[in-house]
Design a protein that fits this description.
Blueprint (H helix, E strand, L loop, with lengths): L7 E4 L10 E4 L15 E4 L8 E3 L5 E4 L4 H9 L6 H8 L6 H4 L4 H7 L5 H8 L3 E5 L5 E5 H4 E3 L2 E2 L6 E7 L1 H4 L2 E7 L9 E7 L6 E6 L6 E5 L5 H11 L13 H24 L1
Helix pairs in contact: 1-2, 2-5, 8-9
């Protein structure tokens, strides 16, 4: 896509006042996928030199917003943690070519805020926390599940930058279960459900994405019954929050979410009994 309204590309390493028509440029796979007539200047983050993935001494994992899907997949292959397999499962949930894998970033996927964004699924399921930096340098942190407000909507002020997402060590130590479905074999996710089992207190979290306009993360002190899980999902997702587009009707997405959530519940219960 030729963005013929863009007059300038600025290196983000050289700060300058934010102005109308500016946009952060990470991998650019969304920006260059369709017309962006409101843009006048791109602020390029690709030379910031942020470490794609960094394990902190406390065991938490910080993922830079500029970390590409290919870099995340490569890092996860050597990650020693019970939740490591979930990274590759979510990377493979992309409807994307190898070209997209090598350019698309975690930050871009989150900031698009699309229901089918698999990096939203991964980071919200693992209790991720966004680090946001305002134009005046002020920093704030917000859970990924709260960062996404709706389809394409996020808690991001004008000019604010998503710097990274941090996954706590406790989440990385969880056993995980993953289910995803779409209308087509290689189609966009229509429903994606992830379950986690905490090995310390045996709590269970069920995270619903793709089928809903925002991530829905449900926490249970112990594995719920089938009825309790269904009731919790029903209470957490309003009728208008089941996503509706050409990739699946809301009623079907809701049905598949209940089905996959129950499969995950049973899988985690069996895991706990081992």
């Amino acid at each position: 896509m030729d963005l013929n309204t863009v007059l300038e590309i600025r290196d983000a390493r050289r700060p300058a006042p934010w102005r109308p028509g500016d946009a952060w440029l990470g991998g650019g796979t969304y920006l260059f996928s369709e017309p962006q007539p409101h843009l006048r200047r791109l602020v390029d983050l690709s030379r910031m030199g942020w470490t794609p993935a960094h394990r902190h001494p406390d065991g938490s994992l910080e993922l830079a917003a500029t970390c590409t899907i290919a870099e995340l997949s490569g890092y996860a292959r050597d990650l020693i943690a019970p939740a490591a397999s979930l990274f590759e499962q979510c990377c493979r949930a992309f409807l994307a070519s190898f070209k997209i894998w090598n350019m698309a970033t975690i930050g871009g996927n989150l900031c698009n805020g699309l229901p089918a964004g698999p990096m939203i699924s991964l980071t919200s399921a693992l209790d991720g926390e966004c680090l946001l930096i305002a134009q005046d340098g002020a920093r704030r942190r917000i859970p990924v599940a709260d960062f996404i407000l709706g389809a394409g909507r996020k808690d991001l002020a004008e000019g604010e930058l998503l710097r990274s997402v941090t996954l706590p060590a406790r989440a990385l130590a969880c056993r995980t279960a993953f289910r995803q479905t779409s209308l087509y074999g290689l189609g966009r996710s229509a429903a994606l459900v992830i379950g986690t089992l905490d090995p310390v207190d045996h709590s269970v979290a069920i995270t619903v994405t793709a089928a809903t306009v925002r991530p829905v993360r449900l926490w249970f002190p112990l594995a719920p019954t089938a009825a309790a899980l269904r009731e919790a999902i029903d209470a957490a997702v309003a009728d208008g929050e089941w996503f509706d587009d050409i990739h699946g009707l809301p009623e079907w997405r809701r049905h598949m979410t209940f089905r996959m959530a129950e499969e995950i519940r049973r899988e985690l219960v069996q895991e706990e009994r081992r």
